[in-house]
């Protein structure tokens, strides 16, 4: 009753792999670390870890010492992640004879109260030896990555004892920008769901949460300056909104995990919900010579539009500490603009003729200038680059369209602009196959460009659009498929191009995610020692 | 109807908001984007056969409303099946508001509904029995002031009616529970409305199975087809052959179903009017059986020597049939349903071909090189064994295709895509009862609203006489387990399986996709509110979002 071709004929190699895995289980070791560190030298020498005699501490030379919020709270988190079974009551009865094991963290800079940014170093080195793991990093953000790696090195035998092997690791990310986009407009995602995603992102060493916070269907961001936007534009003005304290919570949760929060306020298209709370913001569409009652994109001809935008972005710039801001600019439908006589008159006045891309470029340039004056670097979707003639005002372009996306990457970098690549990682589309490998066998730099151009590719992004996704299905749809992208963006491509080699490690990592309460779906048949316990 | 169903409008009508995805792979371009409007049938799902809803509305107070046995009911106070159901549905209707109103003061007398009386009309309520393919699930529901009456010949119909009643209750703008005057007369179009879950490719915790049985009841699904074992693992803990799961499960303690677990599943299902049909698929799909049962599987040969690998069940040994006899004797006592699913699909002949003993046997029996004959030989003997346990059987279509002699009451399960209409014609022409699964393989995934595809299926669209069509007793949605476990099963199943549920319950002419979208959107929010992570149909919101994290 199972249709042939899906289960068994497609992947004979899986069967071999499964055999290999069952053999390796007997060795009581870890499959490895996900994403794979740049240099990873394990050894068979094994040390037993006793939770009663295990400590995190700061090295003498460390610029950060006790009281460092980022690391103090990370120590607390990672203790539970390293020892998932540990409960103090059970351990207290045992007479502790083990010698202590210390994870000693040394960082060169005390950025404990700061935010991660586009220049933050995430480099670390980790040396595990008898009784001591030395973790050295430039910044606390690098130390966080190293703690995650350490937690993945610890494993349990069948009797529940914890072990770690002698190991040497030197690690740093291949790309500085490794993002996940969640869409909270097409469906509202409870804050808990967002925080949980940030947890899982940290396990995968993602470092940017791209918050596509508003769009056509709803405006859940509660603005201090323009409260009507959410009170009229959210699905529900009380239950389906993000208050300022919700936003602060997300930002703070992200910061403690070394994750930047990048908000997107997409305009001039994708703004239907804005119009409900802000009269005259959207363009009235015409049918013949009379307004039809429908509205199109933001009205680019009115001064009041830019006053409003300046006010909104001023607020957004102060609420979100990151130096980047995403301005959207994608998929603008010109039909409504074209129908409106005032817009047409404006076009004439500006000498745009009938080329509405010029009008869009005019609008975007104004918005970019607003954010530049607020000292923010703007990111735009590729549409803006494609339409724009004066590209010098742009700085970062996100490539999202399918097809030859590397051709677009080539064009954008040729123009000297930075690129974020999203096209191969549209994870909201579940089918047509279950194959995770298509998110893994992506080669972001496989275009014919100079070294300088390749340096302009600052990273990539997993997009989880919300048409068909809400809190009921987000997690299994995101994990572990996003993990495939995580490794592509962090690890060395030469060491990680082989899907079959990656498979057992990813399978193991997926079980680790389950153990940590992340509802990561299976890659193929098989089981985890600790299955997901929810429904 | 403006005054009647004051349901909170859940969905914003958004016609053009696909976001950044005009390039997605869209197989179903005929699937229009639907715009939510309130249906005149509110949130009823699946739609009853006959519904009349008036504009008069009544209030229900959690402090005073009761569900009780009608005096004339043949099910007395000892019918715990109904008592459990009364409590369950009371909690669904009032669960979230239980706290607030304990003051009876605000009685609006005239417009209050104080009672739902449940009246089992036939002398035998079947309260302590098990549901079967012939169970009467019909009911009549009359909601009028001051009491509502639910009449059903058997408890099975009463369960369906209680679900319908709970679906009629809504919150008005002030949060008060309300219901409109309503007359419903209802019965299922098909008797067998099933869902297959696969617990071999991935182990499903009992909690997940029970949660989905509960959800099946909300969708009036009445068969849980438990594909309990397969190649990958054997989680069924057999009393007679404990080594099967000891050696064949993913883990002998944490990844098994004990007899107590199985009993719990069966009773939980019975209380919701759901049959549990176990499938023990042979002779193929049995790799995991071989781990705990020596000599059961055929040793494959490489040249003149055994290769070390094993193929399907070995059909030439007497020990095989001794084992099967004892095994199915146990199964027939553990599972009360009148049917067992025996599988019989996808037998790979390569291994049989390689084995010299099998070759000798083929010669001896005069089968030549036709291995379907050997398969039939095996199945025939198996069917005889199962018949001797007084059970009926279901089999996958290949067994019929291969010409095995089948008992007249055999149910043939049609699963192969593409040609399923022809197969339905052939099976019913031969006089066999059949159920359809081919269009409802829910483990296949695709972008956009594939529930519409499942909804648009017409099971009786094949060529055949009226008598042939009567032989189609229903269908099953199959959720195979290669890529599904407890992490993603529930949102992948619901509300997509709800589309199948309505197709199998409601009248043939219930095909309005817009109306279905409107009702299903609300039905999915109801499932979410009752705690089940049913995934969204499209951009929208529910008043009570999923809080399961």
TrEMBL record, chain A:
Keyword line: Disulfide bond, Glycoprotein, Glycosidase, Hydrolase, Lipid metabolism, Lysosome, Signal, Zymogen
The UniProt record lists the keyword Transferase: no
List of catalytic residues: 331 (proton donor)
Pfam families reported for this sequence: Glyco_hydro_20, Glycohydro_20b2
Annotated signal sequence range: 1-32
EC number in record: 3.2.1.52
Subunit-structure text: There are 3 beta-hexosaminidase isozymes: isozyme A (hexosaminidase A) is a heterodimer composed of one subunit alpha and one subunit beta (chain A and B); isozyme B (hexosaminidase B) is a homodimer of two beta subunits (two chains A and B); isozyme S (hexosaminidase S) is a homodimer of two alpha subunits. The composition of the dimer (isozyme A versus isozyme S) has a significant effect on the substrate specificity of the alpha subunit active site.
Record's function text: Hydrolyzes the non-reducing end N-acetyl-D-hexosamine and/or sulfated N-acetyl-D-hexosamine of glycoconjugates, such as the oligosaccharide moieties from proteins and neutral glycolipids, or from certain mucopolysaccharides. The isozyme S is as active as the isozyme A on the anionic bis-sulfated glycans, the chondroitin-6-sulfate trisaccharide (C6S-3), and the dermatan sulfate pentasaccharide, and the sulfated glycosphingolipid SM2. The isozyme B does not hydrolyze each of these substrates, however hydrolyzes efficiently neutral oligosaccharide.
Family annotation (PANTHER family): BETA-HEXOSAMINIDASE (PTHR22600), BETA-HEXOSAMINIDASE SUBUNIT ALPHA (PTHR22600:SF39)
Protein's recorded name: Beta-hexosaminidase
Biological source species: Xyrichtys novacula (Pearly razorfish)
Record lineage: Eukaryota, Metazoa, Chordata, Craniata, Vertebrata
Automatic annotation (TrEMBL), chain B:
GO biological process: carbohydrate metabolic process; ganglioside catabolic process; glycosaminoglycan metabolic process
Keyword Signal: yes
Disulfide bonds: 79-127, 300-351, 525-542
Active-site residue numbers: 346 (proton donor)
Domain Glycoside hydrolase family 20 catalytic: 190-507
Organism domain of life: Eukaryota
Reaction catalysis annotation: a ganglioside GM2 (d18:1(4E)) + H2O = a ganglioside GM3 (d18:1(4E)) + N-acetyl-beta-D-galactosamine; N-acetyl-beta-D-6-sulfogalactosaminyl-(1->4)-alpha-L-iduronyl-(1->3)-N-acetyl-D-6-sulfogalactosamine + H2O = alpha-L-iduronyl-(1->3)-N-acetyl-D-6-sulfogalactosamine + N-acetyl-D-6-sulfogalactosamine; Hydrolysis of terminal non-reducing N-acetyl-D-hexosamine residues in N-acetyl-beta-D-hexosaminides; a ganglioside GM2 + H2O = a ganglioside GM3 + N-acetyl-beta-D-galactosamine
GO cellular component terms attached to this protein's record: cortical granule; lysosome; membrane
Keyword Lipid metabolism: yes
Gene3D superfamilies (UniProt xref): Chitobiase/beta-hexosaminidase domain 2-like (3.30.379.10), Glycosidases (3.20.20.80)
Keywords for this protein: Cytoplasmic vesicle, Disulfide bond, Glycoprotein, Glycosidase, Hydrolase, Lipid metabolism, Lysosome, Signal
Compartments (UniProt record): Cytoplasmic vesicle, Secretory vesicle, Cortical granule; Lysosome
Signal peptide annotation: 1-19
Domain Beta-hexosaminidase eukaryotic type N-terminal: from-to ranges: 44-168
GO terms assigned for molecular function: beta-N-acetylhexosaminidase activity
EC number: 3.2.1.52
Family recorded in the similarity comment: Belongs to the glycosyl hydrolase 20 family.
Subunit text: There are 3 forms of beta-hexosaminidase: hexosaminidase A is a heterodimer composed of one subunit alpha and one subunit beta (chain A and B); hexosaminidase B is a homodimer of two beta subunits (two chains A and B); hexosaminidase S is a homodimer of two alpha subunits. The composition of the dimer (isozyme A versus isozyme S) has a significant effect on the substrate specificity of the alpha subunit active site.
Record function comment: Hydrolyzes the non-reducing end N-acetyl-D-hexosamine and/or sulfated N-acetyl-D-hexosamine of glycoconjugates, such as the oligosaccharide moieties from proteins and neutral glycolipids, or from certain mucopolysaccharides. The isozyme B does not hydrolyze each of these substrates, however hydrolyzes efficiently neutral oligosaccharide. Only the isozyme A is responsible for the degradation of GM2 gangliosides in the presence of GM2A. During fertilization is responsible, at least in part, for the zona block to polyspermy.
Descriptive protein name: Beta-hexosaminidase
Source organism of the structure: Xyrichtys novacula (Pearly razorfish)
Source organism phylogeny: Eukaryota, Metazoa, Chordata, Craniata, Vertebrata
